[in-house]
């Protein structure tokens, strides 16, 4: 049967599968039929369905869960002052002092705070964790109504580990999964669960020396089932189980791997975009078609790092196999130390050496790669034709152009980040030649700020301007400086002049009544647009600004004090005549923006854009044209 005839049969299977109501079950029925055709199209079919699933996840609107007390569930994670409770298919965090342990059952009530989901151009790892784990929120002021201790084996092992001196590293690694998240080793390898795969591989190699292959597989599966019963049947456990057990029934690797990930996708639909799903899946699928050389493997790993983490570590890329073995050795070593505590000091030195490898800047490249374009390059990489020098040159050239356009963009941009009830704005010049942030949000906003910088290909900022020392404007400064150590920080009313970048301060001589009213006020030019940043300036400060600059007119104004009624006077709006007003606020916190502020803007026909509604708001200047686009999907041409 030719490939064309096979696709005709699949087309018929598709319409039969359409009769099934559940979209993923329908896809499974359709694709299992495709597996009959072996490796011709089984992997391609899975990738198609996988991307359809990702689209469903992205387009799925956030839901607000109704919580009824008391909540009863099982403890699946705990630390000092913190408990993670599983309630059916959901999770909730309890902030409390406790003596609970793994698998204990508890009923609680308290003050519930639902998890929120913000719109940004770049994903927030914390929000992704909330979404993939069905984490509905947290409870403070916890009242415990009922507890039932299960005295689980996992809890006993934890107590054993905690009883050892200087055991925090082994506890973090085995139980809390708290390995340093800035480390590529921690994020890419340990979060993916590759240490478990290596552990089973090592065990398989040992057993195969004494037993037949079939008996070895049975023993491995029995051991893994026992491990799951003790440690928990979580997502990574199921991934390892399915990818290992399917080979016992289907010998063709290019068939059983798609089948295993099909089943995993149905079981854990919300985790389809998680690093623990994506990285092992693409790594195994691409390399199941044919043998690959070191160049092809390095290129695939680089693409995956830039898609998942917005950055790549060349040291990790070329020594990936070594680090994969190291993760497995560290995992085996952890269990040996629990049995023989005498090796704990050696373990701690080995752990610190691996997880705190120096981040050599010349080895690290940043920028978010397009998932679609990366897939095209990856398929090109594993294709037979890639061995031709022309194909090889074309693939590398496409990757290089993609990287250069991210790292050295052709446009100027002013980006207002959606950081809730806080302020953070980014100013970039073409080719990322000069970059500056005006306020950096709270410390809790650090993750999304750093993700945005990495995604845009900004390894280090040139300047940071802090309007005033309030937590919602400067709280994330120290965290940001750990990533941008060479950045010039401006805390006083001084102009910033650096080649094409010019931030002109407009209230150098003004002394406000308090820190808010004494905010640094300035203008920035981007393309043909002029931007006015007002910090938390009060109306008194606005009147002084009008007196000093009576002819000041701007295109975009970042409203003072998050749209509060203490700012945004009619005189200011009438004088500067903005087209757009940016409001960085979160309604449920202080009720900003105030209704009076919105009325003032409407009276003067100013377009109000708040980050809570529109998400990140970017003004882009390219080829003498100015555009506006938001993470919520708004796009427009300004001039």
As a whole number of angstroms, the C-alpha radius of gyration is: 28 Å
Q: Give the mean pLDDT.
A: 83
Tally of DSSP helical segments: 26
Number of strands: 22
Q: Give the strand order of the largest sheet, numbering strands 1, 2, ... along the chain.
A: 12-11-10-9-8-20-21-22
Shape: globular
Estimated helix fraction: 40-55%
Low-confidence stretches: 13-26, 35-40
Quaternary class: single chain
Largest sheet: 8 strands, mixed
Provide the β-strand percentage band. Answer: 15-25%
Ends apart, CA distance between termini: 57 Å
Strand-pairing-aware structural class: alpha+beta
Key phrases:
single chain, 639 residues, alpha+beta, eight-stranded mixed beta sheet, seven-stranded mixed beta sheet, 26 helices, 45% helix, 18% strand
Report on this model:
With 639 residues, the chain is an alpha+beta fold. It has 26 helices and 22 strands. The protein starts with a helix and ends with a strand. Mean pLDDT is 83; it is low at 13-26 and 35-40.
Put the structure in a nutshell.
The chain is an alpha+beta fold. The chain is built from 26 helices and 22 strands.
Helices and strands in order, then pairings?
Layout: H1 3-17, H2 23-35, H3 42-59, E1 71-79, E2 82-87, E3 90-94, E4 105-114, H4 125-132, E5 135-148, H5 153-162, H6 168-176, H7 184-190, H8 194-208, H9 213-231, H10 235-245, H11 253-267, H12 275-286, H13 294-308, E6 311-313, H14 314-318, H15 320-339, H16 344-355, E7 364-366, H17 371-382, H18 389-407, E8 412-416, E9 424-428, E10 435-440, H19 446-455, E11 463-465, H20 471-474, H21 477-481, E12 488-490, E13 496-498, E14 501-505, E15 522-526, E16 529-533, H22 539-548, E17 556-558, H23 570-576, E18 580-583, H24 587-590, H25 595-603, E19 607-610, H26 611-614, E20 617-622, E21 625-630, E22 635-637
